[in-house]
TrEMBL record:
Catalysed reactions, semicolon-separated: Hydrolysis of DNA containing ring-opened 7-methylguanine residues, releasing 2,6-diamino-4-hydroxy-5-(N-methyl)formamidopyrimidine
Source taxonomy: Bacteria, Bacillati, Bacillota, Bacilli, Bacillales
Family: Belongs to the FPG family.
Domain Formamidopyrimidine-DNA glycosylase catalytic: 2-112
Organism for this UniProt entry: Paenibacillus odorifer
Protein name: Formamidopyrimidine-DNA glycosylase
Keywords linked to the UniProt accession: DNA damage, DNA repair, DNA-binding, Endonuclease, Glycosidase, Hydrolase, Lyase, Metal-binding, Multifunctional enzyme, Nuclease, Zinc, Zinc-finger
GO-annotated biological processes: base-excision repair
Occurrences of domain FPG-type (ranges): 235-269
Length: 271
């Protein structure tokens, strides 16, 4: 599932290409992906302009010129591609939005969605999310305050979007590895030093991954050499049975609260 770095990469790329370009055509191939009748959705978008692209947690919000917003969540397997009909990948698309001769393709939205919502509806959804961890207002002290009184496994906390926004399975494991902490360590048992280390690892991992385009499997457009560059940088995620890059131990895959977890039992500890 795309997480903060992947969605931030998409936000940046979209902002460079679609702002104030009128929408000239809309195709809906899967009505369940949208939140209204297909004809109404299409009629609302034809001629509209995106004036701002925002990312919040794992969401992208396309701010339209009339005040409404397109709310996108890619969920598991969702992808975006921008280009001409000739360039499009050989994949099923659920929605296609044309900006002149360039088309934004929404793919893999079996569970994901693209909803046209009001400002009030958008803010109601965003209001349920925890704080942004890369926000300039986030500090070590504020982060420690978020953890205060929390209980349970570290990974479960990191992926809880109501506590902190944007982290999913991949980066939770990468952050725990960078901090030298087991994903199963109980948050209530973390020392102040471990919490400080965890904060620094969150900042480092999310920033590094964002700068090189996250781990998406497909480029955003023809010639895009950035998107997905983090695929080869993961230290533990999806590396079961491979040697740990820090100490040579063997990466283990297990489950924690129904989620797959990757970690090194030799260099990740309880504190």
């Amino acid at each position: 599932m795309p997480e903060l770095p992947e969605m931030e990469n998409y936000r940046q790329l979209l902002s460079q290409r679609i702002i104030n370009v009128p929408i000239t055509n809309v195709i809906v191939n899967r009505e369940k992906t949208i939140n209204m009748e297909t004809e109404a959705f299409i009629n609302a978008l034809i001629g509209a302009r995106v004036v701002f692209v925002e990312r919040r947690a794992k969401y992208i919000l396309f701010h339209l010129h009339d005040g409404r917003r397109l709310l996108l969540h890619l969920m598991l397997g969702g992808l975006l591609f921008y280009g001409s009909e000739e360039e499009r990948p050989d994949r099923n698309t659920q929605v296609e939005i044309a900006f002149g001769d360039q088309i934004l393709y929404f793919m893999g939205l079996r569970l994901g969605f693209l909803h046209l919502v009001s400002v009030k509806e958008s803010e109601a959804t965003m209001g349920k999310l925890g704080p942004e961890l890369l926000d300039r207002r986030m500090t070590p002290e504020r982060f420690a305050g978020i953890l205060k009184g929390r209980r349970g496994a570290l990974k479960s906390l990191l992926v809880n979007q109501h506590v902190m926004a944007g982290i999913g399975n991949c980066y939770a494991d990468e952050i725990a590895f960078d901090a030298g902490l087991l994903p199963s360590v109980l948050v209530q048992n973390l020392s102040p030093e471990a919490i400080s280390r965890l904060y620094q690892s969150i900042q480092k991992v999310l920033t590094d991954a964002t700068e090189i385009g996250g781990y998406m499997e497909m480029p955003f457009m023809t010639g895009d050499t950035v998107t997905g560059s983090y695929n080869d940088q993961c230290k533990v995620y999806d590396r079961e049975g491979e040697p740990c890059l820090r100490d040579g131990g063997t990466i283990i895959k297990t489950e924690l609260s129904g989620r797959k977890v990757f970690y090194c039992p030799d260099c990740q500890h309880e504190a």
